[in-house]
Every structure is written in C-alpha cells, then in structure tokens.
Amino acid sequence: MSIRVRVNGVEQELDVDPEMPLLWALRDVLGLTGTKYGCGQALCGACSVHLDGQVVRACVTPIRRADGREVTTIEGLSPDGGHPLQRAWVELGVPQCGFCQSGQLMCAAALLAKKPQPTDADIDQSLAGNLCRCGTYTRIRAAVKKAAGVPDSK
Amino acid sequence: MIRALPVLASVVLLAGAGGCRRQPDSDAARWESLPPVDARDLRPLDVFQRIEDPAQRSRALFLETSRVYLHPRCSNCHPDGDSPYQDSGETLHNPPVTRGPEDKGVVGMECTGCHQEKNLELARVPGAPNWHVAPRSMAWVGKSPRELCEQLKDPERNGGKTLAQLVEHNAHDALVGWGWAPGSGRQPAPGTQAQFGALVAAWVATGAQCPSEEARP
Ligand code: FES
Ligand code: FES
C-alpha cells in the first residue's frame, strides 16, 4: 500500500506495510535518524514526533495513521537549528549523551505552541513521559523556561 | 479495595467467633440462592428469574453488573485521582499521565499519542476508539456497589445519561467493549458485552434498585 505523507514539509510517497511503525518509516526508509528508538513500547518518549502538531510516539504509531497528514521530526523543527528551544538547549548545555533529547525537544515544542508561558507544573506534566537516563531533567526545565522567557527563579 | 478484603474476612471471622447473631441481610440471602459462577463469567439472565420480588431481583442484577464496572479493565480508567491505573488496578499508569482539562491527557502526553483505535499487539499498547479517561465526576475506584449504583443513576455523575442511554452505552460503546477484548494477555472483564448489556437492561427494567451498602457480589 502506498502512503502519502508530508514529512518536514516534503511530500513523500512510501510503498510500505501500512502497519509499519512510523518510527521505522522515518529512520529506515527516509533516513531521518534524529528520532530515536528507545523502548519500542511507548514507555520512554525518545521517538516523539509531531503528527499534525500533536505529539505521537512514532514507535507505536502505524504509518497508515499518518496517511494524508503532516509529520514533523527534530530535523524539521526549524530550518537551521534556530528554534528558541534549540537555542536555549545549546546555551544551557542541556544534553549529556543526547539520546533522549530530540524527543524532549519535540514534546517541549508542542507544549510551547499550546502554552507559550508554561508553569513548572505544565512542564513537568507534559514532559513526564520523556525519560532521560542521564538525568538532565532540571536543565531541560530551565531551558524550556528560558525559551519561553519565563524567569527561572530557582 | 483488594487489600481491604483479608481485613474484612477476618472481621467476619471474629464476629462469628464472638457469637454475633446478626442476621444476614435479605440481599445477601437472595444472593446465596444464586448458582456459583466462575470469576471469568457472568451469571446468565435467566437465573435471576428465580428471585420473585422485582426489587430484590433488581438489586441482585446490579450486584452482578458491579463485577464488570469494578473490574480493573473498566475501573482503571474511572480513577479516583488524575491518573488512570493499569494491570490489576494497584499501579498507576506508566508513563505517568495526567487527565488534563478534557480527560484526554495534557499537551505532549495525550492519550492518543500512544493509544491507537485498536490494540497494538506488537508493543502491547491497548487501543480502542476515543481512548480517554472518565471525568472525575465518574470515578468508580474505591466505591462500594451501592455507591456506584447511586452514582450511575445520577446524571451529574454518570456523564449526563438517562438510564436508557446508560443501557445503550454499556451494551454497544466500542471503548466499553474493549474491556472484553483487552489483548496482550490482559484479563478481560467477566462475561461478554452482550451479557453485560442485557443484565444492565434487566436492572433498569426492574426499577434500577440499589443493593444495601454491605452487599457484595
Ligand atoms: S521508543 Fe517510542 S516511546 Fe520509547
Ligand atoms: S541526555 Fe542521555 S538520556 Fe537524556
């Protein structure tokens, strides 16, 4: 079955099994390896991407669900790495190993798109499912607040 | 609830040992006259016909349906807080989700970010159409069958439904139906959705009576 999906603004036609996880299509078919495979069971958030602006976990999203829709991955978050979150991430040196970070960023970007001035509780709730084995959580929260222009009083 | 059971059992034993002469309430007596049933099944509708008094029959019917409502496949997503439960109902949903303003999660952690419109056997993620958590007003966890019964008759706490709509919802809603086809080795709710719907309809037809506070299925 042929799936038509717009990925990072580019129309793609994929001749794949409609049950193929979106993550496989992105990484193995389209070569977009910025989105990571952590658990494959919707438990870690490493594979978070946007489907029509909503965060979905690509490891459990069959590609057929993306048919006729728009997918944004970390590669498409900004043309040049200049999204306010990406800049804050660099300024605060958020990543350690980096494996979880594209998922963290995609989730944080969806949060800011909906709530430009998030509270600590908003950030914690929205990012609660994005695990970081290196424990960069406090830097992540600080960087989200920096990108949003929310003063970090702590 | 589950942890409380051994405690309740020992209270009953102690009461017995102390020579307490409390009569079993009539609901319980009626209940004992029904044939035993496997935990995976529901008693068929016709066995309730042996209870002559319609009000008594209604109470017995409700107790039977409470085995579905309060089964973890159903009650896990009618939680008493802001997060659903999983498995046998003693652990909170992992990842740690919260209900959000419309009971569909918060931005970045929406229910449908992971749950598809059907079960995903590959990753063991359960799915059904319109996957969401019941509103707080419709919390069932920790309720007795009687409390649940009163709640289900109250449109303020049953999602604004008439009893006829409640029957229809229980008998045919696809998300309710997931409880009997949960996939990936999860224990389904007892019986079938059709049986459950018929029992709820019979409960309504007999006056939608509620059992006593102490009555348990
Ligand atoms: S890889 Fe998808 S949630 Fe872990
Ligand atoms: S930076 Fe290593 S897992 Fe998050």
UniProtKB/TrEMBL annotation, chain A:
Domain 2Fe-2S ferredoxin-type intervals: 1-77
Keyword Iron found: yes
MF-aspect GO terms: 2 iron, 2 sulfur cluster binding; metal ion binding; oxidoreductase activity
Xref: InterPro entries: 2Fe-2S-bd (IPR002888), 2Fe-2S-bd_dom_sf (IPR036884), 2Fe-2S_ferredoxin-like_sf (IPR036010), 2Fe-2S_ferredoxin-type (IPR001041), 2Fe2S_fd_BS (IPR006058), Beta-grasp_dom_sf (IPR012675), Diverse_Oxidoreductases (IPR051452)
Pfam families: Fer2, Fer2_2
Keywords on record: 2Fe-2S, Iron, Iron-sulfur, Metal-binding, Oxidoreductase
Name of the protein this chain belongs to: (2Fe-2S)-binding protein
